[in-house]
Write a structure and sequence with these properties.
Distance between the termini: 12 Å
Structural class: mainly alpha
Low-confidence stretches: none
Oligomer: single chain
Length: 161
């Protein structure tokens, strides 16, 4: 009988931990999005103000989260395009914004500075909209992940009883 209660406690704990993990993954996507927003703003500022080469722009940018996740290392060792394509959509962006970001990264450095600046501003506006939406929805989604995971755990326990 005691093993039964221990099993129920384990099921409840595991389901709760799954909910926490899902919420953490969403928060991580928001951090990626914030870092990408800062990187894009830095790229735009450097191209517009100083006409800095991309390699120097990448080297001068820092973001604690992107450094910790080794995303900046990928950018510095290859390019923004390859880093984005290798990582997939780890950002809090929708598919359309992610495709636009990948297209932007592909074309970055291949046109005159005024065209690059206008493309930068456009992608920054898309990214900021998606980032704002994800940030606003996060508290509600976090609560949902925790509640649903506990509900699923309770359902499993009820089915086993």
């Amino acid at each position: 009988m005691i093993l039964k209660y221990i099993g129920f406690a384990i099921i409840g704990s595991v389901s709760f931990l799954i909910g926490i993990r899902l919420a953490e993954n969403e928060k991580k996507a928001i951090y990626y999005g914030e870092g990408m927003y800062k990187l894009l703003a830095h790229i735009c500022r450097e191209i517009e103000s100083f006409r800095t080469p991309l390699e120097d722009i990448y080297l001068s940018f820092t973001d604690d989260f992107l450094e910790k996740e080794r995303f900046l290392d990928k950018i510095r060792s290859s390019s923004l395009e390859e880093a984005i394509s290798e990582s997939g959509n780890v950002f809090c962006f929708g598919d359309a914004t992610y495709r636009s970001l990948a297209s932007f990264a592909y074309n970055l450095g291949k046109s005159d500075p005024s065209d690059q600046i206008s493309r930068c501003r456009y992608i920054i506006s898309l990214v900021s909209e998606d980032l704002k939406k994800a940030t606003e929805e996060y508290p509600k989604n976090r609560k949902m992940y925790l509640s649903l995971s506990l509900l699923v755990g309770a359902m499993v326990i009820i089915l086993l009883v």
